[in-house]
Amino acid sequence: MLILGIESSCDETAASVVKDCREILSSVISTQIEEHKKYGGVVPEIASRRHCENILGVVRKALDDAGITLNDLDGIAVTYAPGLIGALLVGVSFAKSLAMACGKPLIPVHHIAGHIAADYLTHKNLEPPFLCTVASGGHSNIIEVMSYTDFHVIGRTRDDAAGECFDKCARAMGFPYPGGVHIDNAARNGDASKYKLPHPTVAENEFDFSFSGLKTSVINMIHNSSQKGISLDTNDLSAGIQTAISDIITEKTINAAKAYGYKKIALAGGVSANTGVREALSAACVKNGFEFYMPEKSLCGDNGAMIACQGSYNFLAGITADESLNAAASLSIEKSFK
């Protein structure tokens, strides 16, 4: 079985061909980071335009690298939600047109389900059920993965996502976009205990996340120090931020696993590339006797392979769409295409 996956939910135009659910035959990513860097974040209008310009070439190269043609495909998978609506529409429109033109099934894929699928590509032995924490620039969720296509969210962000907190703190510290990687690098040479930072909690649901208070605390600390002419140690502050986010993610994930009876834990999403988060959650799983899975770093960010992988399982489950498929800027994974 050969599935083409197309991803365009944010600022990466990506396509990949995956064989038999878990073997990556090709993976092509056209990133816009350098262009958005001067604005300190993703500009939706620019992202959409670049997707329009890049998507044909990216898909063609993915097919060429895999050594196949459109006729060899069993289906075409595409991210349809959630994400930047203009960016999503480029991928969905292209995939619909391609599927209709070559007579192949169109397979809708939820972006967060795609991130979870990145773990299948890294760990050939990983199978549901398990608990997965998905942390990225726009999402922070603790999800029960009951099957390859059935999900239950038990924790979600109430405000800022973990990746958003990393990026906004980094911007306030003067790091270029995307800031998370710069905090990660600086934290390696810092003392996490030097600055006292909050660990916000949510009263209504102990498994929900809230990173807005941490972000605000860091920004206020930077502004107050600047007004007083006091210099903050960037390495120490980076270490403190990374440790705070890692501790919050780890504590909630482990507590959720215990409460719901899971001993198999996975991590996914862009923030899963962060060294501190990976090490903290891995160590906690070892301490508690849990199995732990995380994607290789090349699969943590947005990519077409994760969409092709999840698309393969959707296809096997009979989840396809027709020409009426539309993009959705926000949609719970629990309500994804059935």
Describe the structure.
This protein is α/β, with parallel strands linked by helices and about 350 residues long. It has 2 domains: about 150 residues, Nucleotidyltransferase, domain 5, CATH 3.30.420.40; about 170 residues, 2-Layer Sandwich (Nucleotidyltransferase, domain 5). Helices cover about 45% and strands about 20% of the residues. The protein contains 10 helices and 10 strands. Strands 3-2-1-4-5 form a 5-stranded mixed beta sheet, with helices on both faces. Strands 8-7-6-9-10 form a 5-stranded mixed beta sheet, sandwiched between helices. A hairpin with a 4-residue loop joins strand 6 and strand 7. The mean pLDDT is about 95.
What characteristics describe this protein?
alpha/beta, Nucleotidyltransferase, domain 5, five-stranded mixed beta sheet, 10 helices, 18% strand, globular
Spell out the blueprint of helices and strands.
Layout: E1 2-7, E2 12-19, E3 23-31, H1 33-37, H2 44-66, E4 75-81, H3 85-102, E5 106-110, H4 111-122, E6 130-135, E7 140-145, E8 151-156, H5 162-173, H6 180-187, H7 212-228, H8 234-260, E9 264-268, H9 275-288, E10 291-293, H10 304-316
Parallel strand pairs: 1-4, 4-5, 6-9, 9-10
Antiparallel strand pairs: 1-2, 2-3, 6-7, 7-8
